[in-house]
Amino acid sequence: MTTNVLFLCTHNSARSVLSEGMLNHWAQVLNKDVRAYSAGSAPSGRINPFALEALANAGMDTKGYHSKSWDAFVADGAPQMRVVITVCDSAAAEPCPYWLGSPVKVHWGYADPSNAPGGDAGKRHAFEMTRQAIGYRVLQLLMLPLDTLSNTELQANLERISQR
């Protein structure tokens, strides 16, 4: 059974998109039955071009990404999530909708790379460093025995990963 993971950030334009891309990429490479999605509480309507560039530079297909509301994941017919991960502090502080199936919820905070100093070069560097940090955590998630862990065990493991 596919493990569905939803990454949340306020605008669904950078960190959540990087997370979705990294998890889907590594799940495919490692032949894991995991599917990532991303959304925001107040989607900006566009993906930050530096996020798409960081994914593309790492060899990932960036077609099909779009900024979307978390409402899409509580609607009829939405995939049921096993895990919901907030990746920005503001999204972590917001009241979330009711998620069908009571998924495990955890916060993996990352600084907003779109606020990096140094013009475009500084932003490119910050997006790449954020992509790599996300990749490190995503690989740890994929090494977990997701099919056999209880939600309590999964919660504890994901919280440990957030500390690394």
UniProtKB/TrEMBL annotation:
- Organism's domain of life? Bacteria
Query: Where exactly are the transmembrane stretches of this chain?
Result: none
- Specify the species: Ralstonia insidiosa
Quote the protein name from its UniProt record: ArsC family transcriptional regulator
Organism classification: Bacteria, Pseudomonadati, Pseudomonadota, Betaproteobacteria, Burkholderiales
